[in-house]
Amino acid sequence: MLELELAGEQRQDAFGRQLAGFCRPPCTIYLEGDLGTGKTTLARGFLRGLGHRGKVKSPTYTLLEPYELAGCNCYHFDLYRLGDPGELEFLGLEDLLDAQAILLVEWPESGAGVLPGADLTLHLSHAGGARRLCLEAGSGQGIKIVQALTATLGGEGDEGPP
After folding, report:
1. Domains and CATH numbers, the chain
2. Does residue 4 or residue 62 have the better pLDDT?
């Protein structure tokens, strides 16, 4: 597990970009936290880190925003408004689980029992004016990502990425 404190949206965006550099498909990342903790901000940085240059919309109402990028597809889910996990079938979840996909899933508990397990879970919480971020590996790939981030951040500890 890796814990960081990120002060401000720019730090969350920068961390998302940095995280993207260590993720390779197939990869499933859960983004957990209360409203306003910056899940979408972090996802926006992640998508930019994968090379997306356009606008990043929050999928709050559409539930899913697909991004076709060089080398992989990334699917950003926001399941806050999902009524039943079975509704993921109507979004074509099974078709999206290909070898070249990265899934970013906000509110994953709403898709419990249908979503694939997380390679990495990011727990975000309020920490005064900053955000506390705890990364928890859920697979061998997740462990490698956490180890790479830890090595990259070095002695910065709770400071977050540069």
Report:
1. 2-153 (3.40.50.300)
2. 4
